[in-house]
Amino acid sequence: MDTRIVDAEITLIPYYPNYETAFAWYQDYDVCKQVDNIDYLYSMDRLKAMYGFLSTHGDCFYIEYRGTLVGDVTLRDNGEISIVICKGYQNKHIGRRCILEMIRLAKEKGFQQVTANIYRFNTQSQKMFLSVGFEQTGEEWYRFCVK
């Protein structure tokens, strides 16, 4: 897995254990709710388990924005995309650009479609995925047909 240059501001760096930096992203109640629909903060054990799963079941990247790690994005082997952007960097169109890059990666891998599971209360993520061409296929499921 190689580093992927999204644009002049965003680089996707292949996952490596960097728990101290990533742990801070999951110490925000709103982010934990958006990502996992939980009302508590991540423990270090939960963080390590999550990255252990994501990094062995797909292509997991850190999102570097203007030289700072601000989140992560994964294209799982089953075609599901997941993304988290730390609170201070949300609403800067970082996620949109990273999702488009995951669609390009999916195309390179020969996927016919990619999906995203987004909780119904997470209207911010829903709008972002819809804006890049995903369609809603279920109460909390979205799909993009890769061409």
Written description of the protein model:
- The strands form 2 sheets. Strands 1-2-3-4-5 form a 5-stranded antiparallel sheet, sandwiched between helices.
- 28% of the residues are buried.
- The protein contains 5 helices and 8 strands.
- Helix content is 35%, strand content 28%.
- It has 147 residues and is of the alpha+beta class.
Which short descriptors sum up this protein?
alpha+beta, 5-stranded antiparallel beta sheet, 5 helices, 8 strands, 35% helix
Major sheet: order of its strands? 1-2-3-4-5
Shape call: globular
Weakly predicted, low-confidence segments: none
Please state the structural category: alpha+beta
> What Rg do the Cα atoms give?
14 Å
SS elements, strand count:
8
Question: Would you tell me the overall average pLDDT?
Answer: 95
The helix content is 25-40%
Question: How would you classify the quaternary structure?
Answer: single chain
What is the count of DSSP helices, taking H or I runs of 4+ residues? 5
- In this structure, how is the largest beta sheet organized? 5 strands, antiparallel
Classify the beta-strand content into a percent band: 25-35%
Distance between the first and last residues' Cα = 22 Å
- The H-and-E topology, N to C, reads as EEHHHEEEHEHEE
